[in-house]
Design a protein that fits this description.
Layout: H1 2-13, E1 19-22, E2 27-30, E3 35-36, E4 42-43, E5 48-52, E6 57-60, H2 63-72, H3 85-96, H4 102-110, E7 114-116, E8 121-123, H5 126-130, E9 136-137, H6 143-154, E10 159-163, H7 167-176, E11 180-183, E12 188-192, E13 202-207, H8 213-225, E14 229-233, H9 241-245, H10 248-253, E15 256-261, H11 267-272, E16 279-283, H12 295-302, E17 309-311, H13 317-332
Parallel strand pairs: 9-10, 13-14, 13-15, 15-16, 16-17
Antiparallel strand pairs: 1-2, 2-5, 3-4, 5-6, 7-8, 10-12, 11-12
Amino acid sequence: MSKTMGKGGVFLLLLAKRMKFSCAAHEVRAIAAPASNKRGEKLAASNCICPAGKTGELRRASKTECATLVTRHSPRSEYHLIVTITEAIQLLEKFRAGGVSRERVLRAFQAAPVADLTFAQVDTHRALRKGFPEVVFGAGKTPEQVVKIAAKLLEHDQRVLVTRTTGEHARALRKKFRSAVHHPLARCVTIGKKPRPGRSGIIGIVCAGTSDLPVAEEAAVTAEIMGNRVERIYDVGVAGLHRLLAKSENLRRANVLVVVAGMEGALPSVVAGLVSRPVIAVPTSVGYGASFGGIAALLAMLNSCASGVTVVNIDNGFGAGYAASQINALINE
């Protein structure tokens, strides 16, 4: 977008006539010819202008604002792109009150905004469809790419989750965003502008051994930033079954359980035999030679004789935490 808007606003100069964009807060006009504000000051043809506050005065917009306005408002229509649940609710309430037409609401919901960063196509509609913004998978991405993706997501939502981060990723994100929190054991970074309201009910994260903690913590951090209360029950593997039985009451309190284990992967079957809750089993790559990097645990969990066990991929704590959050959200509806 910066290349498009640079050097005198070439993009806007290509427009043959004045275009009117509409926004929930105010009207924004992009102009293709010089104009004047109320004080008679000339405004450059490359700038956007908009009423400032209730006075209706027109002010000059910066290049950054200009680029943002063009990306946030369609030049072919008069509706504001819906990118979050809050914005969708506000538009529907406005429609119910007679403030907007049915056609305008339909056009708003038909839009599927995507932010083109060249190296990434950021889905800014994910929160509206899924209830949580697009999650950034840090592995294979440079720190600069991760920061730019996170910044774009934060333009539309109030929280971001970055998984499989390195120390370099974490340092770059913390330098850019004051609210960034590094979770080194989980290999995650969370960014939140304000706390996410918590859901009722508990998601239990059960871990067989200390070596499985990185995967368990990835699940826990994911569930927490999605608005859930998490209870951690760690180091309760089947080699010392009495440790697990001592936590029976904790297990039964949870709405859903994420059970993480490596080696032979027996723990999810044991837990599922003790509770009437959904169990999401996570095999880890922890183990000796014949564990084949987690395949032995994966196959054991897939072949569980206990009812109610669902299995995710090897070391996929994020996927388990996300699925557990969706289950807990349904219980809360």
